[in-house]
Amino acid sequence: MERRKFLRNSTVVGAGLIATPMLASTSNAEKELETGKKGGPSKDILPMVICTWDFKNASAKAWDVLKDGGTALDAVEQGVKVEEADVDNQTVGVGGRPDRDGNVTLDACIMDKDGNCGAVLAMQNIAHPISVARKVMEETPHVMLAGKGAEQFAYEMGFEKTDLLTEKSKQDWIEWKKTSQYKPVINIENHDTIGMLAIDINGDISGACTTSGMGYKMAGRVGDSPIIGAGLFVDNEVGGATATGVGEEVVKTVGSFLIVELMRQGKSPQEACEEGVKRIIAKNKDKQDFQIGFIAVNKKGETGGYCIHPGFSYRTYSENGHVNNPSDSYLDT
Ligand code: ASP
Prior knowledge:
Keywords: Signal
Protein name: Twin-arginine translocation signal domain-containing protein
Pfam family, one: Asparaginase_2
Active site: 193
InterPro entries: Ntn_hydrolases_N, Peptidase_T2, TAT_signal_bac_arc
Oligomer: single chain
Structural class: alpha+beta
Bound molecules: aspartic acid
């Protein structure tokens, strides 16, 4: 009974979409709704997608997949690939900032409605780590492949070798080497992962997370982004969460898993994200000069986001529109 009602509602939502001008706006950025509205999609509005930061081309791509009845898994993969391919984005995929030795090493993971997951860590020379992570999930008995092994597997799966270091990122690195100071900048410059969660018309949730990691990191450093439970977690009974910011701190609290479990215990996505940030703050009482941003969605399509310092935002796209949501923060500055 409940299931039938849900499917009927989904169909109505889908039909409504086709009739509204909003659908046309999916390929027309000028027509998107005003930015700055908080809260994201309201209850029971599916399908929907949410992603970290103002990655509006990525959320629009994911929405294109979802509105055509595609799966949440396809939506998150296709969505984050937009940022992996953007050479001007120096924090994800091609054009990402290198490690301190000048090598671009990429991290990504993906998780589906059945709890299956795949990840690649510190992988070089492959433009779309999220798609390799999906192959790890679907084609191997493993969850994670790292470094040369991940790259070798990618070639076996038909991925092409790609030079990930753009001239701009190379010049920035050469400039950085003059001082060699490793200091993550809050919100921008040397980090900004895309984490994305989607719910499809069947109500199923998937998530993806991909990054070039902290700029000028030590060779071999891996952050939270490809670690299931830290940078991303999905439980199709409850919801999903994903993170951006200084990965070491997210790993220490297994942040995304924590947020999903808090939602299981009854917290809203917003309350769960706030608690996730507070756990990190509690472990860093004397050192708060770093950024963490969490986003979450529950099974109803309710969303939340929270961060340490102002400046973080997250995109939502649903029947309610395509919105950049400025996140509330623990600190004022
Ligand atoms: N979480 C990423 C990492 O630690 C970086 C980021 O999101 O800014 O590698």
